[in-house]
Specification:
The chain is an all-alpha fold. It contains five helices and no strands. Helix 2 packs antiparallel against helix 3 and helix 2 runs antiparallel to helix 5. It is globular.
């Protein structure tokens, strides 16, 4: 089963936002004379975070309550490990580029949290259940 990337970006506006912000971080770093690759890598850590969060939510939704709790806690550990591990690897590969990676991660993650709140059903009319 193949997925059309255009359809995926239409169905997932948060993913579209994260990818656009990642590209913007790289462009801003390039304009500022900093390392654009590490800025992009730091911002893409938020995309990985989002993907694991979506996967954990999908897996945890189907099944008993105890499994949902276990998947939620495991998902938190995996997301934290991806972010911290990714930043450590970036810092080990390019010590000077760690600053761009950390700043771009924090910037994109902050906007992501706002978008997540904006998309939360309790704050708006909500979406119909699937």
């Amino acid at each position: 089963m193949s997925v059309n990337p255009v359809d995926l970006l239409r169905r997932e506006p948060v993913l579209t936002l994260l990818l656009a912000l990642s590209a913007a971080c790289a462009v801003i770093a390039l304009v500022a004379g900093r390392n654009a690759a590490t800025a992009l890598a730091g911002a893409l850590l938020v995309v990985a975070y989002w993907l694991v969060e979506r996967l954990a939510a999908r897996v945890g939704r189907d099944g008993p309550f105890g499994r949902a709790i276990a998947v939620g806690l495991g998902g938190m550990v995996v997301r934290l490990a991806i972010v911290v591990g990714g930043l450590v690897v970036i810092g080990l590969i390019d010590r000077a580029g760690f600053v761009e990676a950390a700043f771009s991660f924090v910037a994109v993650y902050t906007i992501y949290l706002g978008a997540r709140l904006w998309r939360h059903p309790a704050l708006g009319p909500g979406r119909p259940a699937r």
